[in-house]
Inverse folding.
């Protein structure tokens, strides 16, 4: 059974493919794997991919290690996570050192694959998602080891960091509390509402009523929370590795499906096959998608 690691975390030396990179070596690397601005991922040597930056959270490393230790789901092995000093910042930056996965993302490769290869990948992903849901739940809703939720729905638009209020980011003991946190995020987004204060309050009450009516009766399950082909690596042998566990945690059963549907770009037949990877929650999806669209585009 997985136990929360002591921070900073370093894997046992016998599990390492070579000496861990130093902060100086990480910062000196020009071999970018990802180009997400404040959260770059760089290749250091031939074995290590390192994610770091002002938006990187140790919690992501803990979540990925938790999945690695609790399941057989292929994820990049986590070798270390710690905080270090970076020139130009007056606070410590988080670093996650993990296994480098050669290959390409499923998003880039999908349209080049045969129908049988696509079917095999869907089958792999279904098994992995079923196993993720089968991890015994501690019952609460929130980040791994009873930490706050780090999903995009609970982030401040101003800086992309989680809201500081625990009644929003949790952890929550019940689904009702989590849904109330969702609604509070919506309330904050409505500060830009242009329909006048009275209409704003009526609109918010309308959302609150329906949120608590639709989003109920869902147990917590471990959830990737940012599942789409861009976060699936395809190895040269056709096997898949699920990456980017930044938003993961214990969420209601509908969360993965609804978030994945919101991310669909409708440009390939992935749209037709994703239904075979995840259980469907059609009623919840409509309100969930509307919630995200309202928060991000209000």
């Amino acid at each position: 059974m997985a136990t929360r690691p002591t921070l900073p975390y370093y894997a046992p030396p016998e599990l390492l493919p070579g000496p861990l990179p130093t902060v100086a070596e990480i910062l000196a690397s020009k071999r970018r794997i990802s180009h997400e601005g404040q959260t770059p991922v760089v290749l250091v040597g031939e074995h290590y991919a390192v994610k770091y930056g002002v938006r990187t959270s140790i919690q992501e490393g803990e979540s990925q290690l938790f999945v690695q230790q609790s399941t057989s789901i292929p994820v990049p092995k986590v070798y270390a996570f710690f905080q270090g000093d970076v020139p130009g910042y007056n606070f410590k930056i988080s670093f996650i050192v993990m296994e480098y996965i050669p290959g390409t993302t499923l998003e880039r490769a999908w349209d080049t694959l045969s129908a049988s290869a696509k079917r095999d990948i869907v089958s792999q992903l279904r098994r992995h998602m079923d196993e993720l849901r089968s991890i015994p739940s501690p019952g609460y809703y929130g980040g791994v080891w009873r930490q706050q939720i780090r999903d995009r729905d609970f982030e401040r638009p101003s800086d992309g960091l989680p809201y500081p209020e625990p009644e929003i980011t949790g952890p929550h003991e019940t689904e009702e509390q989590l849904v109330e946190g969702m609604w509070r995020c919506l309330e904050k987004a409505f500060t830009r509402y242009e329909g006048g204060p009275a209409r704003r309050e009526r609109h918010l009450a309308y959302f609150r009523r329906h949120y608590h009516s639709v989003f109920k009766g869902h147990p917590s399950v471990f959830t990737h929370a940012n599942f789409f082909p861009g976060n699936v690596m395809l190895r040269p042998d056709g096997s898949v590795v699920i990456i980017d566990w930044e938003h993961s945690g214990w969420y209601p059963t509908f969360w993965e499906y609804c978030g994945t549907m919101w991310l669909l770009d409708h440009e390939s037949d992935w749209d037709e096959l994703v239904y075979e990877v995840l259980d469907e929650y059609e009623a919840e999806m409509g309100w969930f998608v509307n919630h995200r669209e309202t928060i991000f585009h209000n």
In short: The first strand starts at residue 9 and ends at 10.
